[in-house]
Amino acid sequence: MIKVNFENIAKNKRINFKSYSKTVKSIHEMIHNKTGLGKEFLGWLDYPINYDKEELKRIIKKSNEFKKKYDTLVVCGIGGSYLGARAAIEAINGLYPQKSMQIVYFGNTLDPDYSVQILNYLENRNFAVCVISKSGTTTETAIGFRLLKNLLEKKFGKEESKNRIVSITNKIGGALKTLSDKEGYETYILPDDIGGRFSVMSPVGLFPIACAGIDVQQMLEGFKEARKEYDNPDLSTNEAYKYACQRNFLYKKGYASEMMVTYSLNNKMLIEWWKQLFDESEGKNGEALLCAGATFTTDLHSMGQFIQDGKKVLFETILNIKKPNNDLEIKADKDDLDGLNYLKGKKLSYINNKAYNGTLEAHSKTGKVPNIVIEIEKMDAKSIGHIFYFFMISCAMSAYLLNLNPFNQPGVEIYKKNMFHLLGKNGY
Ligand code: PA5
């Protein structure tokens, strides 16, 4: 399903598998025996096997009901509580899907302009809400949900609103759990041993993705398939570990940033999910690569100049999805005033692919920017499950190679404390 190639990296910057193999073997055992830093957050490893089967049935039933009754689902969550779902939905359904329920994202910002615009838009939609917060106390999500709840109650009345709300949160504790129990919302649980950015294969991702009409059982299959495929420490065959080691090697060689590149606008949010996964897992103790993202060819007209000719601070990792789900052909034009007839009969995918080959050569050979290429056969429900596991396990390996705990995020709390103090919240 996934192959990683390092052919577009200068020989002296390519990893030597032998030098990593002993360390990788011991980290692999540490992950699977759950003995490393943050070991209490490794629930995602086995979740697609151990998951609550009854809960999945409820998720599928409820999502079918939502799809039938409502035209729009508002996913209210931030960070790990929405990025994975959005990544999968956009990667598979695209940005303007015509068949599925419309999915709108809220509770992921404090921006008043966006918030007012979405609420105005929802005034004329027959919408339902899925509120997601593991802690149940995240400010952006809590404010977003209060606004949505008020609108629902104004439009549909208090009792009807309860049928239109699903909540996903932890088992005990947070304000969202208390509120959900009190109001009697349909609720799914994010287990304590799974952190937000590793939660896409739990109800956090499964419910919104199912509402978007994507086969979540196939997605779980893809995750399981990958789990089996990468369950060995052999660096000559384990593509996920190869990727982790190569990025570690480039970091050690002095590169400051990894830029993940896609040639499909639909995968922009997949890169956002990947950025959170790696930046929040590794950006600690003054360490780690800064994860950046770009969409080509669009961004070749903006960041392309820097990548080609600017300071050599970054390397690129290309997500090369080999087969698009849709395609079209350039037709001949009798006047050819735009001079494009030389492309007549060519598919857009062919042209995109030539742009990819031309850029790869320009950046890696002429510009001397190392390029890791991750080749993925196609994008569908099963493959996105596989891709999620691939990056999660490589992220765990990558963070442990830096002796970091991949599963905490102590730095994120500092701005929150300052903000609460400035807002006058009790106890701050
Ligand atoms: O990965 C993480 O832990 C974070 O990004 C959280 O998912 C994010 O901060 C939202 O937290 P919560 O789900 O508790 O609202």
Give the tags.
428 residues, alpha/beta, five-stranded mixed beta sheet, five-stranded parallel beta sheet, 10 strands, binds 5-phosphoarabinonic acid
Ordered list of secondary-structure elements with their pairings:
Layout: E1 2-8, H1 17-32, H2 43-50, H3 53-69, E2 72-76, H4 83-93, E3 102-106, H5 112-122, E4 127-133, H6 139-156, H7 158-163, E5 165-169, H8 175-183, E6 186-189, H9 203-211, H10 216-229, H11 239-252, E7 257-262, H12 268-282, E8 290-295, H13 304-309, E9 314-323, H14 348-366, E10 371-378, H15 381-401, H16 412-423
Parallel strand pairs: 2-3, 2-4, 4-5, 5-6, 7-8, 7-9, 9-10
Antiparallel strand pairs: 1-10
The structure holds 5-phosphoarabinonic acid.
5-phosphoarabinonic acid binds at residues 78-81, 133-135, 138, 141, 195-197, 280, 409.
Task: Report on the architecture of this protein.
It contains 16 helices and 10 strands. It is globular and about 65 Å long. The protein has a 5-stranded mixed beta sheet. With 428 residues, it is of the alpha/beta class. β5, α8 and β6 form a beta-alpha-beta unit. The chain starts with a strand and ends in a 5-residue tail after the last helix. The structure holds 5-phosphoarabinonic acid. The site of 5-phosphoarabinonic acid has 14 residues, from loops.
